[in-house]
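Are you able to produce any protein sequence you like plus the matching backbone structure tokens because I've never seen that pairing?
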Amino acid sequence: MIKVGDTLPASTLMEYSEVEGEGCSIGPNPVPVEKATAGKTIALFALPGAFTPTCSAKHVPGYVEKAAEFKAAGVDEIWCVSVNDAFVMGAWARDQKTAGKVRMLGDGDATFAKATGLTLDLTGKGLGLRSNRYSMLVRDGKVLTLNVEGPGKFEVSDAETLLQQAQKA
């Protein structure tokens, strides 16, 4: 499992873009993790699935609400990562009104989740292999803090906890 001090795994996430610009076409666009984190401080949180109850009612809204506070604490971007395709993440972004606040990044085949060692097997519940629920503060690709939830919990990966860590970093 990834730990504090480690570098994020070299992988590519996918982001759905509603508008064309800055070298991005409309639709799914690759986000190479190594390149996208270079020289930046990222508040990254991951969760089991788009449109699921805790993720939609608590996890994403907390980060959307505190986006300005994260910026004030020196965070360049907030990333939400889930084992969903870019189309689903794009629809969820619209639903959660994340534009300009949280980048919704799909890990469609769980490559990133597997590489971090933070997977959650929900096969018996019809969801397959997913990402565990966690948050981390990342600077220039290196993990500064890591908050991994226990099974079925939502206690340490919330926006307030990571914001406090960002303010101290």
